[in-house]
Amino acid sequence: MSKPVSARGQPHTGKKRFISGVVEGFYGRPWTMGQRTELFKREQKWGLNTYLYAPKDDYKHRMYWRDLYSAEEAEQLIALISAAKQHDVEFIYAISPGLDITFSNPKEVAALQRKLDQVRQFGCRSFSLLFDDIETEMCPADKQAFSSFAHAQVAVTNAVYQHLGDPETFLFCPTDYCAAFCTPNVSQSSYLHTVGEKLLPGIDILWTGPKVVSHKISVESIEEVSSVLRRAPVIWDNIHANDYDPQRLFLGPFKDRPTELIPKLGGVLTNPNCEFYPNFVAIHTLATWCKATADGGQRDVEMSDEEHDPCYSPKKALTLALTDWLQEFLNTDQPGARLKKESSGEEPMQTDGGETPHVPGPGENPLYTAEPLTLDDLKLLSDLFYLPYEYGPTARTMLQELDWLRKHSWAAAAETDKTAEWCSRAQQFDGMCEAVVQMFNRLSNAPNRCILYDLYNYICDIKSGVGLARAYVKALGGQGRPAAQLMNTDPEPWGFRGGLSGEFQRMLPCHGNRDLFREPPMSAVYCVRPYCPEDKTEVQRIFREMQSAGEGKVPLTKQPPLICDGLSAGEISPSPQCALVLEDEIGVCGYALALTDAKPAAGKIQRAVSDSVFKDFPSLVTMQVLPRVTDPSPAKRMIGRLLSSVRSSGSRGVFCELRQSDRRMIDFYTKLGSFVPIQMAGLPQDILALGTSL
Fold it and tell me: What are the contacts of 428-435 at 24+ separation with CB within 8 A?
């Protein structure tokens, strides 16, 4: 169980215990003492060895970190630490003083040490100092005492570590705990370099990966940060965390972390869903991953094309987890569980009237009999609530089918060569929706009510959403009036989603960022950000590439210029706050630029535009997106944000010019629904002008 404090900058070896387990580090209602004890049993059973106590809303962990625990609280923590030891789980107590600590005040450091001394008296021997999610501006007293925020944190952490006698396990969470927070990047971060150089070598450092919630964590990224930190990091993994969105739950497998990482890390701790019982899958699959070896074992011949790790298959790990979880669902040995008479071994309790169980008579309704929950039900549940950056296969199929049925709804209205296909696919979609309903019914009747109550809001929500989609498809197919309430102007409250939060999101131009899959379903993650001078070369490259792709029979050099060409070519600067770029994992893949006053640009190419046009449409926009961006929603998000900025400048309308050969952008603007053709005298042949009022 011990951890040698040496060779901290070297890759993890067999001599140093690999930390594996769970961090209770989310925002929201902390788990109960009973749930934590149950967690220790599971960790021991599955081969995990660590629990990091760091609930953000335990007010003596974070907000009132100076306050000592009361006798009653101490009794609970003593019992919890003892329970962890009984199950061979290392209990790490974390404290988060960063909200208001004055680093340069010795009394503050003494208060921190006094608090941890109290916890040490409870039997705890492992500790953690967390400085995540705090302001980076130091108070005047600290600015005088320390040359940087990193120096202040390191000084206090080292002092506490030594005061506690150099514990075998001591974790430090930096303020810049992921690559996205590092300025300008990981390798050049002065903050991380200071932490790596000054933090005592016996202290491990927590790291979440490229982002707070990292889609993937690569070996190369870990090697880079290990070099800066001079030790292998311990991953605080937020891939299953859901405290940032009350509508989402994550029941997919631990994935997109190659097992080649294991020898290069100090450990992995998952910070999972706020709800305790649905974390069965997250923790179970992490345990399976931790048992995998990266020593060149035999490759799994049954791996799918999406699984490139020879030692770990997320699909198989998920099936193992769901198989075990099914037994938990059927377990009646839980508070509130619905006991089966035949399994209890006791006579059923008699009522005062000595009534016997009801037996339906001839012609009466039969007794309701619940079908038992199946493994397929849990696989479907996992698919519907998979992971932050992707839906499971069934969920993706449902989205794709609904998208196809909606786009081809004309085939249901009239007899065409597509009608039979439309009807067949509509029937298949209806079958998938029915499977969700049946899954809900069987989950609702599962004996273990503890798991059900944690899931209930989520499965109710997805059942309702699927029901709306199902009714919509039936309406497209002309099957009666199942969607009457859905389509009318005064629907029931379940016909519109999200309450006030949903209203706010629908009003914001970036609302599409919440949607993983649109039309067609997305397979990439996109970022819309403000244009900066360094983007000029990339914008010019995209402009030239799209020009070349659209030349056709007449070279562009022989075609009349567009007013916006100078804007895209970098000859004219966009108006302030009126330039955006679109990025994917490869790099810049699109741009949207605007001039709030288009008159000077028109004059520059000697284009005569009437004052009446400029009166209604004084501003100019231009946009291009590379062909690899097949999903229109990021472009819609980008143009929406740009139009909001132009409107904020006081403009009453915008126009764009497009060549007739640019069918892709003409189709995009047309489908937006707000841009319409406008008449412009003297407009060159083969150039189309579209405008929209703001």
Answer: 428/401, 429/398, 429/401, 429/402, 429/405, 429/470, 429/473, 430/470, 430/473, 430/474, 432/394, 432/397, 432/398, 432/401, 433/398, 433/466, 433/467, 433/469, 433/470, 435/380
Active site residue 133: yes
> CA torsion, points 573, 575, 577, 580, in degrees to nearest 10?
-50
Name the pairing type of β-strands 126-130 and 234-237.
Answer: unpaired
Going by C-alpha positions, the residue among 28, 32, 516, 42 that lies closest to residue 279 is 42
**Nearest to residue 466, comparing CAs of 363, 529, 395, 548?**
395
**Host H or E run for residue 548:** helix 536-549
Strand ranges inside 514-578, DSSP E: 527-530
Q: Which of 51, 53, 49, 50 lies closest to 25 in space, CA to CA?
A: 53
CA 251-44-271 angle, 5° bins: 40
253-280 residue pLDDT tens: 999 999 999 999 999 999 999 999 999 9
- 118-129: pLDDT as tens digits: 999 999 999 999
Interval 532-557: pLDDT, tens: 989 999 999 999 888 876 654 445 56
DSSP helix/strand/coil, 206: strand
Measured CA angle at 71 (ends 67, 74), to 5 deg = 75
Q: Residue type at 121?
A: Q
Residue 165 Rama label (left phi>0; alpha psi -120 to 50; beta): left
State in words which class domain 19-292+313-323 has.
alpha beta
- Determine the Cα–Cα distance for residues 687 and 543; give it in Å rounded to an integer: 17
The token pair that represents 133 in the structure block: 């999610």
Contact 526, 570 (CB under 8 A): no
Q: Are 170 and 124 in contact (CB under 8 A)?
A: no
CA distance 481 to 405: 18
Give the distance, in angstroms, between the CA of residue 516 and the centroid of all CA atoms in the same chain: 9
Catalytic-labelled residue, pool 57, 117, 132, 133: 133
- Residue type (1 letter), 468: L
Q: Which pTM value belongs to this model?
A: 0.70
Name the DSSP class of 30.
P
Contacts of 76 (CB under 8 A, 6+ apart): 33
Q: What are phi and psi of 389, to 5 degrees?
A: -105, 5
Q: What is the pLDDT of residue 489?
A: 53
CATH number for the region 527-693 comes to: 3.40.630.30
8 Å CB contact between 566 and 606: no
The Cα–Cα gap between 28 and 11 comes to: 35
Whether residue 223 contacts residue 193, with contact meaning beta carbons closer than 8 Å, is answered with no
What is the second-level CATH architecture of the domain 375-507?
A: Up-down Bundle (1.20)
Assign 3-class secondary structure to 142-203: HHHHCCCHHHHHHHHHHHHHHHCCCCCCEEEECCCCEHHHCCCCCCCCHHHHHHHHHCCCCC
C-alpha separations of 408 from 21, 369, 403, 444, 476 in Å: 49, 40, 9, 36, 10
- Using only C-alpha atoms, what is the Rg of the chain? 30
Q: What residue spans define the domains of the chain?
A: 19-292+313-323, 375-507, 527-693
DSSP 590: E
Degrees, nearest 5: CA angle 200-204-207: 125
List helix spans (H) across 365-448: 375-384, 393-407, 410-413, 419-444
Q: Which residue from 61, 214, 30 is spatially nearest to 127, judged by alpha carbons?
A: 61
Q: CA-CA distance, 326 to 305, in Å (whole number)?
A: 28
How many Cβ atoms are within 10 Å of 194's Cβ, its own excluded? 19
